[in-house]
Amino acid sequence: MKIISTPEKLCKGHYLLHIECAEDCLPGQFVSFKLGRFTDPLIRRPFSIFNKNGNDIEVVFKENGRVTSMLKNMTDFSDVDVSGPYGRGFTVTENENVLLIGGGVGNAPLHYLSKVLKTKNNSITFIYAARSQEFIYCGDRFCTESNEICYVTDDGSFGDKGFAADKLKSVIAKTKFSRAYICGPTIMMKSCAEILIKENIPLEVSLENYFGCGIGICSGCSVDTVDGKKRACVEGPVFDGSKLLWQYL
Ligand SMILES: Cc1cc2nc3c(=O)[nH]c(=O)nc-3n(C[C@H](O)[C@H](O)[C@H](O)COP(=O)(O)OP(=O)(O)OC[C@H]3O[C@@H](n4cnc5c(N)ncnc54)[C@H](O)[C@@H]3O)c2cc1C
Ligand code: FES
Predict the structure, then answer these.
(1) Which domains does the chain have, with CATH numbers?
(2) Strand 8-11 relative to strand 2-3: parallel, antiparallel, unpaired?
(3) Ligand 2 mean position, distance from CA 33 (Å)
(4) What is the pLDDT of residues 122-165, one digit of tens each?
(5) What is the pTM of this model?
């Protein structure tokens, strides 16, 4: 796998990269980046698959720390090792009425999911949450893949004012869904999961916790579930949201 484009700025702090990849990828799986040939930065970083078109994968990254700050200014990727896809992806249903809830850069894996769900004749309602309008990326592309899209921003600068959980309450009051999928900051996923569990709506969540090895060896990414500890990099990052012990996340 190799990076085949320089980073394209999408919105404040968010960039798009194209990667050549011949492997099949499931929505919710991730690819892993190692920058440089030496030990600094040492640890690989995971990034979700935003889209796949033939052998072209797209990844959206948010400038967050060391690796993403380096990546956004790079033009030569010969020393960047990209591998994957890794992890357990989302369940792809057929002919269902499904709800997707994304927060910030966590909307990225749900874009690829919505594209695949659409090919399986699902009806898709998408709640796209962001801090403010300046952090919304690829809005038109999300619209194309969904039957209905609801934007919600913390400050009300685009769509409704409020949080994803506020919008979720009003959406499920009007429409019945057979399944929900969530990806975003832990606090947002937790508040949405509480509501969905109470309403008995099955939910899958993609965790974005910090990884060490990224391949199942170090247990650094372990999360507590009703079935014991699970490694997010191999048994996840997608989990049944009703089985996670949210109080420990
Ligand atoms: C499955 C998965 C998919 C992901 N997909 C995407 C994606 O599509 N796009 C995207 O932008 N990001 C994604 N992420 C998040 C991304 O991998 C991290 O934000 C990554 O750390 C960024 O690397 P960095 O070097 O830029 O930042 P880092 O330098 O790693 O860290 C950024 C910030 O996190 C803090 N931090 C670092 N390690 C820890 C730790 N162990 N515990 C708590 N805080 C810590 C640092 O202090 C710093 O403030 C994903 C994560 C996972 C697990
Ligand atoms: S990051 Fe090492 S086991 Fe998951």
Answers:
(1) 2-86 (2.40.30.10), 97-205 (3.40.50.80), 209-249 (2.10.240)
(2) unpaired
(3) 14
(4) 999 999 999 999 999 999 999 999 999 999 999 999 999 999 99
(5) 0.96
